[in-house]
TrEMBL record:
Domain of life, per lineage: Bacteria
Record protein name field: Bifunctional glutamine synthetase adenylyltransferase/adenylyl-removing enzyme
GO cellular component, one term: cytosol
Pfam families assigned to the protein according to its UniProt record, in alphabetical order: GlnD_UR_UTase, GlnE
Positions of region (Adenylyl removase): 1-488
Originating species: Amycolatopsis bartoniae
Protein family membership: Belongs to the GlnE family.
Alphabetized UniProt keyword annotations: ATP-binding, Ligase, Magnesium, Multifunctional enzyme, Nucleotide-binding, Nucleotidyltransferase, Transferase
Chain ranges of the Glutamate-ammonia ligase adenylyltransferase repeated domain: 87-314, 589-824
Organism phylogeny: Bacteria, Bacillati, Actinomycetota, Actinomycetes, Pseudonocardiales
Coiled coil: none
Length: 993
């Protein structure tokens, strides 16, 4: 029991590990044989909360030994004044250097007993008073430096105490990071003012009349973001006698450097090799003619802090003029990015992960990203023109240049790293940016406690801090790479500043020069998009200068801008829309091309906006497996509660896929065969889903299922060769179930088929979903659905050669698998007749072709530019291929395919056509298909006619791979040349005996 009592009364319970703690506490009068003195409980609790309780107690003991006479007053204040106790103990438990100051300057602890520990408005007066030492004239040289050092350290003590006290006494208010850095900056400014006063006194024998000197703060001092231990970057600007001004500047640097901190003037023109002091005109000439990119970046933080106020003001005005035009310099963005990479390379690899300032995920990552965004966008948006990193980051978020979540995350991470940096520097008042190694557990624990980090489940303070630091670095690096290397930055920087002012007369002239046919109308669109003060308007203001240039490179700039306005207005409530455009440069470039090229894409985009997010990822945009797409579509539709919901879901998914495929097609990411296959697979999945939903509905109404149904794809659907505007040619076949007569089976199947056609064919803003059954026996006059046996009887008795030709592309696509397979088996002898076609039927096929091409080409159009019926077009090639199939497929199994291209390859392999002829026909068929698709995308409506002039022709040519500098007539010449060669081959093959 006695041992337990002694353990309970041990100093160890308060966190002390030093063997001398008991002795030191007794000497202070706070400990007895029975344990802590009753009046000192608060002191001991405060010591236990210090970052390093042993260090704090040791500091108090040293102060007691240095000033025994003053100790009783100090001890009483500690016991009775919680605010004072929190400040002093926090400082002593964190900083051995400030403890040394308190030991060497008895009585300075009284600074911390004041109601308000820091008052920045009085800093300059206090330091000036220190160097004057109650005299009219200031001290000089060593005496001045010593006085300034003491005054500076005393004020630094006050700032640190206010910063740290909440850790020891949680009831005390914690100053914000911005308040702490502002206090430190105010102290540095006061030191420069006092140092300049001493420097003037040292040159009292000289005639300084007419000699003016202004001190311009740069870097963290300019941004009011100083650390506890920093070089203070300055630039000196003078007028009058520059030799005297230079001596004045040199003396100021010496006095302040010896007393407070190093004053670094290396950011001046030409660096350390340049003159220390230049005139305002000299600075101006240098920045206009010789300055490098990094120097403008440094000038972003220029701020006059001491000396001649008017000269300082003029310098800052000059700096503003050159800084906010710097982004127009050639390769500006690339230069800034390259500089960051150079800085990073200079960090030793073994220290890179611990380097708070220069390493990956360090402070410089945040600062470079913020400054680059400021310099690019701040040319027009004056709200971004702040020297403070945190203020600028907040403005970038508020203005929409950075996502709010990203800005908040960067602010939090930056503040955390700066706080860690402050605590590391306070320890010994040495400049350091190196985070402790993971193995330095004791150092990490002290650092964590100084910040206020507390242990978590199973993890001590050191582990918690280490984890927080690593996560913080990862977040900063991720966001740095996202923002700093954003492609949009280079694009915005390349736009002249005046062009960024989007609604001026100069902007109208620029739009006309860029190729906008109606610049006044374009300005109205711009005003509508950027109206107001919302974040949305701000983001649009940042995006539009780039988009206007990108639109100008398309075939229809005016149409692109109008489409962009419609899309933006339709998606204004979609939270990620503008964020994707702002953050993904590739998305902006691709969207601009799509909007300036296609009338179909904008219409689809407003109803399938999710596809926009795929534009930045070509693999996701173009790489989807058609089978997986179809499977997903069927599964989604199957989950819908009724046929209307099922068809709506099918339409929505088809729209998404059509837009995805169209975008990939226009961007050259999918070849024409993959496009046709993807569109065909989607159409098949829609039919499968709609048929299944219609069957379920009708079966529920009847309470049974009288028949099985199969859908046979015909034409381009059967050949998996659908385009964007193609109808779905089909046949419906049914078969009665047991106990059901054919009449009832046909009625059931007909109601299902008609329901499918009506539901899918309802008017829509999307390309139509027209189910066409006109290729059925007896055409439109025949029944919509027949039984398998009815089809068999019809084809055996009544079918004509054109019907056998149509069946060449028949393919089972939906419904009952077994029924579909039996239908295909039944028609094989019809479409692949044994022995081929006799001479009479061959002549009939040839007559039909001639009649179709004569009667169906629209009058007044150029027959050489009709993709379907024109010379060497789709029909020309298909008639030749299908005649080969009708004549030879019975003997050549590889010809038994619904694909035109595959049939041509099989014909060449079987020596039915020469290889070069097959190649010519394939090239023409693929070209005509591609041009037909491109025309649909460009015009927004189906057309077989190739545009022959104007913007539509230019747009189709661009889709086909011609640049905006090429004459679109070259594309027409190529099309005519290719189809003419193919037509010659068709004539030879089609009429060959």
């Amino acid at each position: 029991m006695a041992e337990q009592a002694r353990g309970a009364a041990s100093p160890a319970r308060y966190g002390f590990t030093d063997d001398r703690a008991d002795e030191q506490l007794r000497a202070a009068g706070w400990w007895t044989d029975a344990g802590p003195d009753q009046s000192s409980t608060g002191v001991l609790t405060a010591l236990s909360r210090a970052a390093d309780p042993d260090l704090a107690l040791r500091g108090l003991d040293r102060i007691r030994e240095a000033d025994e006479a003053g100790w009783p007053a100090l001890s009483d204040a500690l016991c009775q004044n919680a605010a004072f106790r929190g400040r002093l103990v926090a400082v002593l438990g964190t900083s051995s250097a400030l403890a040394d100051f308190l030991v060497g300057a008895p009585g300075e602890w009284r600074r911390l007993a004041q109601d308000k520990c820091t008052d920045t408005d009085c800093f300059a007066d206090q330091l000036l008073a220190a160097v004057h030492a109650d005299q009219d004239e200031p001290l000089t040289r060593t005496a001045a430096e010593q006085a300034l050092r003491a005054g500076y350290r005393g004020l630094l003590l006050e700032i640190a105490a206010a910063d740290l006290a909440h850790v020891v006494e949680p009831v005390l208010e914690q100053p914000s990071y911005a308040e702490v850095t502002a206090n430190l900056t105010a102290l540095a400014e006061a030191a420069l003012v006092a140092g300049l006063e001493v420097a003037r006194a040292e040159l009292k024998s000289k005639d300084l009349e007419g000699t003016r000197l202004a001190v311009i703060a740069m870097g963290k001092c300019g941004g009011r973001e100083l650390n506890y231990v920093s070089d203070v970057d300055v630039i000196f600007v003078g007028e009058g006698d520059l030799q005297l001004a230079t001596r004045l500047a040199t003396n100021t640097m010496r006095v302040v450097g010896n007393a407070c901190f190093e004053v670094d003037a290396a950011l001046r023109p030409e660096g350390k090799a340049g003159a220390l002091v230049r005139t305002l005109d000299g600075h101006t000439a240098y920045y206009q003619k010789w300055a490098r990119t990094w120097e403008f970046q440094a000038l972003l933080k220029a701020r006059a802090v001491a000396g001649d106020a008017e000269l300082g003001r003029q310098y800052v005005e000059m700096a503003d003029d050159v800084v906010w035009s710097a982004a127009e310099r050639e390769n500006f963005v690339e230069d800034v990015q390259q500089m960051r990479r150079r800085v990073e390379k200079h960090v030793p690899s073994e220290l890179a992960e611990r380097e708070l300032k220069l390493g990956r995920g360090g402070l410089r990552d945040v600062e470079f990203a913020v400054q680059l965004l400021q310099l690019v966008h701040g040319r027009v948006d004056t709200k971004l023109r702040s020297a403070s990193t945190m203020d600028a980051l907040e403005a970038l978020g508020a203005g929409g240049y950075v996502g709010l979540a990203d800005a908040a995350e960067l602010e939090t991470a930056y503040e955390f790293l700066r706080t860690v940096e402050h605590r590391l520097q306070l320890r010994r008042l040495r400049r350091t940016h190196l985070f402790p190694e993971a193995s330095e557990t004791a150092e990490l624990r002290i650092l964590a406690r100084s910040i206020g980090v507390r242990p978590e489940r199973g993890r001590g303070e050191a582990d918690v801090l280490l984890g927080d630091f690593r996560r913080c670095a990862q977040r900063i690096r991720r966001l740095h790479e996202k923002l700093f290397y954003r492609p949009l930055l280079q694009s915005v920087a390349s736009v002249p500043t005046e062009a960024l002012r989007l609604t001026t007369k100069q902007a109208a002239r620029r739009l006309a020069a860029l190729g906008y046919a109606a610049p006044d109308g374009a300005l109205q669109h711009i005003k509508a998009l950027t109206a107001g003060v919302s974040r949305r308007a701000s983001i649009q203001h940042a995006l539009l200068p780039v988009l206007l240039d990108l639109f100008a490179d398309t075939a229809d700039p005016d149409g692109a801008l109008l489409a962009y306005r419609k899309v933006s207005e339709a998606l204004e409530d979609t939270p990620w829309y503008l964020r994707v455009l702002r953050d993904e440069g590739a998305v902006v470039e691709r969207l601009a091309f799509l909007l300036g090229t296609s009338k179909l894409v904008p219409d689809l985009l407003v109803r399938a906006p999710e596809v926009l997010q795929l534009l930045g990822d070509p693999e996701r945009l173009a790489g989807r497996d058609p089978d997986e797409v179809a499977k997903s579509l069927r599964a989604t539709v199957r989950r819908q509660p009724g046929i209307k919901a099922a068809v709506a879901a099918a339409r929505s998914l088809r729209r998404h896929e059509m837009l995805r495929v169209a975008a990939a097609d226009l961007l050259g990411l999918m070849d024409v065969r993959r496009v046709c296959e993807a569109l065909s697979r989607v159409w098949v999945a829609v039919l499968q889903s709609a048929l299944a939903a219609a069957i379920r509905k009708r079966e529920a109404e009847l309470g049974r299922k009288p028949a099985n149904i199969a859908v046979i794809g015909m034409g381009r659907l059967g050949g998996a060769e659908l385009g964007y505007g193609s109808d779905a040619d089909v046949l419906f076949v049914c078969e009665a179930n047991d106990g059901v007569d054919d009449g009832e089976a046909v009625r059931f199947a007909s109601s299902v088929a008609e329901n499918v056609r009506q539901m899918l064919g309802q008017p829509s803003a999307d390309p139509p979903l027209q189910v066409d059954a006109d290729l059925r026996p007896e055409g439109r006059g025949g029944p919509l659905v027949r039984t398998l046996e009815s089809y068999r009887a019809y084809y055996a008795r009544w079918s004509e050669v054109w019907e056998a030709q149509a069946l060449l592309r028949a393919r089972y696509i939906a419904g009952d698998d077994a029924l579909g397979e039996r239908f295909i088996e039944m028609i094989n002898p019809i479409r692949y007749p044994d022995g081929g076609l006799d001479a009479g039927r061959v002549r009939e096929v040839r007559r039909m072709k001639a009649r179709v091409q004569t009667e169906r080409i629209p009058r007044g159009t150029d027959p050489t530019l009709n993709t379907k019926l024109g010379r060497g077009g789709l029909a020309d090639v298909e008639w030749a291929v299908q005649l080969l199939q009708l004549r030879h497929a019975h003997a050549v199994p590889s010809l038994r395919t619904t694909s035109t291209v595959n049939a041509l390859a099989a014909a060449a392999e079987a020596d039915l056509v020469a290889a070069e002829d097959a190649e010519s026909l394939t090239e023409a068929w693929l070209l005509a298909t591609r041009v037909r698709n491109a025309t649909m995308l460009v015009r927004g409506k189906a057309s077989d006619q190739v545009p022959s002039s104007g913007r539509d022709l230019a747009a189709v040519a661009r889709v086909l791979g011609y640049s905006d500098e090429d004459d679109p007539g070259e594309f027409l010449d190529f099309y005519r040349r290719t189809t003419r060669r193919a037509h010659v081959v068709v004539e030879r093959v089609f009429f060959a005996d």
